[in-house]
Design brief:
Layout (H helix, E strand, L loop, with lengths): L1 E7 L1 H5 L3 H11 L2 E8 L3 H7 L9 H8 L4 E8 L2 H9 L12 H5 L8 E3 L3 H11 L24
Bound molecules: inosine-5'-diphosphate (IDP) and magnesium ion (MG).
């Protein structure tokens, strides 16, 4: 199954949204294969957001992402990267569609509740960035035949 990385940002932690968002992922049929709380620092954020380090808002983004511990999550499922991005919604919470996580919980470009990997290359690098190999559990829930048809499970 494809894996993707999600970060519950300080905006999710501070606002008590962890349970709600985790429930959404579980209801969708995504499988938790790794989960832990950690305090991010500037070094890991410069790597994670390397595409944004030159932006004028980057210092504020750093501060925002270090404002509290975060929870990192490795989710598995068929097409999990795309499924989770669709559930996440547009970057700016004011433009994210209702029904998406950002559309339902965010009103900001920066304070937008979760991070989700945006490509297979990013997902692989991000999972390795935030998890040691022994922290990811490859397991198959017993309910899998009720989540996917046998044709979808090859
Ligand atoms: P994404 O999280 O939807 O993939 P990216 O463009 O990769 O969006 O940006 C990473 C994060 O940087 C966003 O989730 C948001 O927290 C922050 N960010 C992006 N653009 C802006 C901006 O214009 N102002 C403030 N923060 C921004
Ligand atoms: Mg991104």
């Amino acid at each position: 199954m494809e894996k993707t990385l999600v970060i519950f940002k300080p905006s999710a932690i501070e606002r008590g949204l962890v349970g709600n968002i985790l429930t959404r992922f579980q209801q969708k049929g995504l499988v938790i294969t790794g989960m832990k709380m950690m305090q991010l620092n500037e070094a890991i954020l410069r790597e994670h957001y390397s595409h944004l380090v030159e932006k004028s808002f980057f210092p504020l983004l750093l501060k925002s992402m270090m404002a509290s511990p975060v929870i990192v999550l490795c989710l598995a499922g068929k097409d999990a990267i795309n499924v989770v991005r669709l559930m996440t919604g547009a970057t700016n919470g004011r433009e994210a569609l209702p029904g998406t996580i950002r559309g339902d919980f965010a009103s900001s470009n920066q304070e937008n509740i979760i991070h989700a990997s945006s490509s297979p290359e990013d997902a692989e690098a991000e999972i390795a960035r935030f998890f040691a190999p022994g922290e990811i559990f490859d397991w198959t829930p017993a309910n899998t035949p009720f989540i996917y048809s046998s044709l979808e499970l090859n």
